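Run Transposase, ISMyma01_aa2-like protein through structure prediction, thanks.
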Amino acid sequence: MHPRRGYRFIHALLVQEGHRVNRKKVRRIWREEHLTVTTRRRQKIRTGASVPMQAEFPDHVWTYDFLFDQTLEGTTLKILTLTDEFTRQSLALRVAESFTSMDVKDVLHEVIATRGAPGFIRSDNGPEFIARDLGIWLAVQDVGTRFILPGKPWQNGFAESFHSRLREECLNLEVFYSARHAGVVLDSYRSFYNARRPHSSLGYRTPDDYAQQARGRPAAPLCGQSTANVDVRPSPG
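Sure, done. The structure for Transposase, ISMyma01_aa2-like protein is below.
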């Protein structure tokens, strides 16, 4: 159970694990135990045009970005995240002390080899992402690029949302002794996130279940919800 989650999330997780429990009862217990989560939302001044391109199906748009953490001894850890914007699946979580554009390409190559290439990939203007050699390789793979405007991280809202969850539910709760140790922990979190973690914007389904449904494969209903009533156009959040 993650301490930063609300009662709806916990109820969905309990039902997914086979427990028969009323959501109102979970809400009452959450209030009695003072576990209600209060979220402070940062005000954002949005100016200029946002980057177009909304994901309309699995593997239409991927997004990648970096976030940082550190080991117990203070060594900086750089974490590459790769996400499918439509299904919310975490496609890769890689950690190292540094990354080059070729390291990024290697991760993309590995994922594309097993999943196929996306139509587009979204990122900020970090040097690893705008490198000429990576751009040429993506063009050969017939992958279009979409870069957000400098200083406007909200234009990559799916990456920002995933990073927020990753930090709250994993990074802030762990102490890493090395990049290798962090990699093991992140692999475990990625498995949980994709296969077991209910996602509110997906109708409290897991990303893997949602992806199966979007691809026309049967997926077990979650929280007593009929698959016919699940919206297949997610929004950031």
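Residues 61-201 form a domain with the Nucleotidyltransferase; domain 5 fold (CATH 3.30.420.10).
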